[in-house]
Amino acid sequence: MDTWKEFEANELTHSAAHHLLAIYEVGEAYGGWARVSDIARRLNITRGSVSINLRTLKKRGWVQTDEHRLVKLSPKGLRVVHSVMAKRVIVKTFLRDVLGIAEAQAEIDSCKIEHLISHSTGQRLVHFLQFLTSGAPVSRQFLRQFRAFQASCPASRTCGVCKGQCLIDELKYAT
Amino acid sequence: MDTWKEFEANELTHSAAHHLLAIYEVGEAYGGWARVSDIARRLNITRGSVSINLRTLKKRGWVQTDEHRLVKLSPKGLRVVHSVMAKRVIVKTFLRDVLGIAEAQAEIDSCKIEHLISHSTGQRLVHFLQFLTSGAPVSRQFLRQFRAFQASCPASRTCGVCKGQCLIDELKYAT
DNA sequence: TGGCGTTGTTTGATATATCATACACGCGAT
DNA sequence: ATCGCGTGTATGATATATCAAACAACGCCA
To answer: How many secondary structure helices (H) and strands (E) does chain A include?
Structure first.
């Protein structure tokens, strides 16, 4: 019923996830400590925005601050960052190495999705990639034949309603 | 640099996508025409919220209104709905039938992602599923052996930082 | 000791997305 | 004809997320 609301219910927003990632990346060379200015520069937003957003991140217990106003991830925040980073790598790897999507597009898609997929989905995707790249004969053969199949796929078929914008026509098998 | 901002730049928000889907579903039995009340009931939000959100949807050219205040998808809106529906089905099918994720979780994850994946990613995912379910010997064998591999996977390994919350440890192959 | 630049915060603005509540309109039943 | 209910809209509130601009504080340099 309210499945679609799970999106909003997610306590980790896209914005928050990237603030945490930025703190991690910026602080990497300074023992985990980051300055508001550098976080803002990294995200290409204003210092004011970062300052305001940090309130929520602190309230959630994801970051800690210094007496010098330096910012650091809490253990809880670090766990979130690890989780998000891992999911992005997994999704991007799948999109690029299995589906053959261009690096740039794979980056964009995985960046949008990284904070949304569940732990179990991420884990199963890892196992899938592990098996696919395990070097087992069946995996190698499958990948090779899939590449050939892809090459033979028509660029796109036209849908009566969407004029090629949707994929309905290609979904007959799924009904 | 600003890849992460693509999320906000997306003109089709999660909320908007589901409003359009609701209009489509509610209107299905009435020649595409839907009432604000029914849309609100469908989404489990107030009539007021729908009323306000419809302004944006109209401004974007996705819906049209009647002199009786009935709401209908424009041709452009219908294309969006087809595109989103198709992507949800594709992703859900992949999660459920390939990765073996439970129906409910697959529904939640695909619902979060449906409006975010690009057309090319959706199309390639379709081709992947087509090949996997084509009945080709290599596909059947691959799927069977993957199931066996999955069954042998340890439930989860513990990450020093995350205590099993992240998947970093399982990503060694990807570095 | 001044002054200037960087830094972090605050303020007022916009945009989305929701709520509860109040209001106005129309239609059907009495 | 009017009473009441359902419907759509409007209003004021909250929460997120951004901006520009103003402001205060600190440090460095002369």
So the answer is: 8, 2
